[in-house]
Structures are given as structure tokens and as C-alpha cells.
Amino acid sequence: MAFSIDNYDIFNYINNEQEDEINLGISYLKLGNYVDSLDQFNFILDINFNNLTALILRGITYSKLEKYENALSDAHRSLEIEPTSLSSFILRGETYFMLGKFNEALIDFNKALEINPNNTYVLTMSGEIYLKFQLYGKALVCFKIASEFDHSNIKSLVHSNNA
């Protein structure tokens, strides 16, 4: 599984406060300069430790660096700040997935789907977990729904034909 910044709905949270610093951190993240990205988000959080966007982005950066416990900590903290943050549930679900905690990941992905039931990425990740649990019917449902929303989602289409 590859983390992708495009799977997060964090850009709705960006406002004029520290926008340039956040955009610089995002640029570093997209370029794969994870240490610089981490430094940038730490700088922002030193100024405002409740900056939800910087916290989620730092969690993504920690995930890229395979520092999953740190990513999990940022995901927990971001949910304390905003208990209905879709991006926070995705981050925590992905992190649990990477740690092999599939039950916890599925709980977070289900919470994310309560917020946005059309999120093809979350549907696909849920399907992946159901496959690991050999719950092929549930996996098929997730992949089929994902493919209905995003016909370009080849991964879902391939899995739905194999499930």
C-alpha cells in the first residue's frame, strides 16, 4: 500500500494562517523530501500545536518515513482536535493497516465511510482488509461500490473480478 497525499481531504482546512508554510511542506512531501517536509510541519506545529492540517500532514510524512507510531500519535491528536475529520480517520486507518492491526483499521475506515460513503480509496482499503479476513462477499461489495464511483479505479475492478 502506498500512501498518497491525494487520498486526503485536507485542503479544505487550509486557510491563510501559515498557508505558505503548509504549501512548502506539501511540496517537500510530494517531492519525497520527507525530512524537509517533517521539519516544515514541525515548524508550523511549534507555532500552533493545534494546526489540524499540519498535524495530519506530519502524520503522513511520518508514515512515509515508516515511523508508524508517530503517525498514529498524530492521527489520535488530530481526532481530538476535530473528531469528524475524514483525513484523520484515513491516516489512522492506513497506519493501523501498515502495523497489521486490521480490525482497528477497518473500524476507522468504516468511520471514514460514515463521513463520505463515496470515498473510493477507503472502500478499496476496506475491501483489502476483508480479503485478508477471507470475507470475500464483503470485499466484493466494497470493490463493486468503489468501481461504481470511480470507473478508473482499476485496483477495485481487478479485485472485484477476483473476489
TrEMBL record:
One Pfam match: TPR_1
Q: Which InterPro entries match?
A: SRFR1-like, TPR-like_helical_dom_sf, TPR_rpt
Q: Which residues form a coiled coil?
A: none
Listed A to Z, the keywords are:
TPR repeat
Give residue ranges of the TPR repeats: 52-85, 86-119
Q: Name one GO biological process term.
A: negative regulation of DNA-templated transcription
What PANTHER family does the database record attribute to this sequence?
A: SUPPRESSOR OF RPS4-RLD 1, TETRATRICOPEPTIDE-LIKE HELICAL DOMAIN-CONTAINING PROTEIN
User: What is this protein's name?
Assistant: Uncharacterized protein
State the organism named in the record. Answer: Gigaspora rosea
